[in-house]
C-alpha cells in the first residue's frame, strides 16, 4: 500500500475531519504503511496531505484551523459535516512531480475507467455507452451518442426530507450528465470539432462535459469563450484519476425527454441505465439500498486506490504523474 492509499484508508476509518497527527496514528495503528527509517514520519504524512490539496485530488478536502493548521476529511463524508465547518481552503501551489514515461500510444476508450474513478470520487455513477451496439447505424446518428453518461443523486440528511422532496418533484432528486471523451485537443480546429460534438451528444442531459487527457494551454481563452456561450463543461483527465480537474463547470439545462426516448430506442446500454435510474427514484425507501447496489454493479468499474490506477496506466501505456 502506498502512503497516499494508507492516508485515504485512515480518513475513511476516521470519517470526520482529522489532523495530520490523527491520520498518522491511525496508519500506525493498522500497520498500513512502513515508514522505514524516516526520522519525521508524521511530517511526511502532513506533507502528503498537503499534496492532495495542491494536486486538486477530488477525494480529500481540508478545513483551516488557527495557526496555519488544517483538518482533513474525505469528500464523500462532506454531507455529514456541519456547514459552519466547511470553509475549505483552495491552494493552487503547483506540485513538484516526476513524469512516468509511457512506452507507446493508448486507446481512447482506456480513459473511461479513469473518468469513472474520478466521477465516483465525487458521488457520480457512470456508464460507458457503446456506439457500436446501437441499432441505428446511419451517419445522421453519429453525434447523438455520448461516450459516457452519469447520474448524481441528491442525498439529504433525513429520510423525511428526502421523502418530502420526492413528493414535490422527483426531477429534483437527481442530475444526469453526458461526457464526450478525447485523448487530446491541440489545435483550434480540433477544439471546435470536439466541442460541438459534445454539444450535440449532450443535448438530452442536465449537464454536458467535454473530457480530454491533453489540452493545449494556448486554447484556454477559446475554451472559456465556448464554455460561456454554450454551457459545456471541460474536464482535464489525469493518469491519477483523483487529480483530474473540472476546468470549467457545465451549465444546468432541463432534460430533453424526446432525445432520451430516442437514445433508449437505439441503444440498450442507455435504456438500461435510465431503467435503473427510474426504479431507484420511484422505489419505496425500504428497497433503495438494494436498487442502488444494482445500479452500481451495472455502472463502469472504478479504482479504489491510486496504486490500482498507476498499475492500470502502466498496462495501457497512459502517461501518469507520480510524486
Report on this model:
Helix content is 40%, strand content 18%. It is α+β, with helices and mostly antiparallel strands and 323 residues long. It has two domains: 3-85, Arc Repressor Mutant, subunit A (Orthogonal Bundle), CATH 1.10.10; 108-316, no CATH class. The strands form three sheets. The protein has a six-stranded mixed β-sheet with strand order 4-5-6-7-8-9, sandwiched between helices. Helix 7 (220-230) links the parallel strand 7 and strand 8 (233-236). One of its GO terms (biological process) is regulation of DNA-templated transcription.
Concise summary:
The chain is of the alpha+beta class.
How many alpha or pi helices?
A: 11
Q: Kindly, what is the distance between the CA atoms of the first and last residues, rounded to a whole number of angstroms?
A: 15 Å
Number of discrete domains: 2
Tell me about the biggest sheet?
6 strands, mixed
| Shape, per Cα inertia axes | globular
Number of strands: 10
Helix content: 25-40%
Structural class: alpha+beta
| Integer-rounded radius of gyration | 21 Å
Strand arrangement within the widest β-sheet reads 4-5-6-7-8-9
Global mean pLDDT: 83
Beta content comes to: 15-25%
- The run of helices and strands is HHHEEEHEEHEHEHEEHHHHE
Low-confidence stretches: 87-104
